[in-house]
Amino acid sequence: MHVVIMGCGRVGSTLARTLEKRGHTVAIIDQSADSFRRLSPNFSGRTITGMGFDREVLVESGIETASAFAAVSNGDNSNILAARVARENFGIENVVARIYDPGRAEVYQRLGIPTVGTVRWTVDQMIRRLLPSGSEPEWRDPSGTVRLAEVHVHTGWVGRRAYDIEAATGARVAFLTRLGEGLLPGPDTVIQEGDLVHVVMLETDAAAVEAQLGTKPEEL
């Protein structure tokens, strides 16, 4: 898949290298051309100098064929603006924005944009929100039989109950992350836009569960 990153600081450059090593194509945008020196000499992706929320710059980055967008510059407002442009103007579903002010997290989550605060940021957290499937598990039992993973959920599941996910996949919804806080789902808990869904499943079923949740559910 093709991923566009705004911001080539320590976060953006590390994310770009990690994604490229996993076989994805990457374009990275930054206002300063000097920032691209943080990339490794063998980085083969595109580097674009400009503002990550500028339409022409995004088109140059290949946003029209991208599957994911990460806004990881050093400005909260720029990150959210760019993330909204990527989602609303170009239809990118897998969007994530880095924030410095945790007090703004609830506002951003209500816009349907997953955010990662700097205090608890890791490359793995960003990748879980960018890649629609095959994400790194959050936990495995010692035998390697059961995994807990944050699974990308198609927007068609919004408005459905967590129970519907379990009935459709055979997996268990362990908890949701909603507006930055954990939530244990009850029988009538409904998936809302911006929710992060954490699922417990058999290791052997992981690919099938991720594929099913990554597509629009069948009508009930």
TrEMBL record:
InterPro entries with a match to the protein in the record: NAD(P)-bd_dom_sf (IPR036291), RCK_C (IPR006037), RCK_C_sf (IPR036721), RCK_N (IPR003148), Trk_Ktr_HKT_K-transport (IPR050721)
A GO biological-process term: monoatomic ion transmembrane transport
All residue ranges annotated as the RCK C-terminal domain in the record: 136-215
SUPFAM superfamilies linked to this entry: NAD(P)-binding Rossmann-fold domains, TrkA C-terminal domain-like
KW Heme (keyword) present: no
Matching PROSITE patterns: RCK_C, RCK_N
Alphabetical keyword list: Ion channel, Ion transport, Transport
Ranges for domain RCK N-terminal: 1-118
Taxonomic superkingdom: Bacteria
PANTHER family xref list: POTASSIUM CHANNEL PROTEIN 2-RELATED-RELATED (PTHR43833), TRK SYSTEM POTASSIUM UPTAKE PROTEIN TRKA (PTHR43833:SF8)
Designated name of the protein: Potassium channel family protein
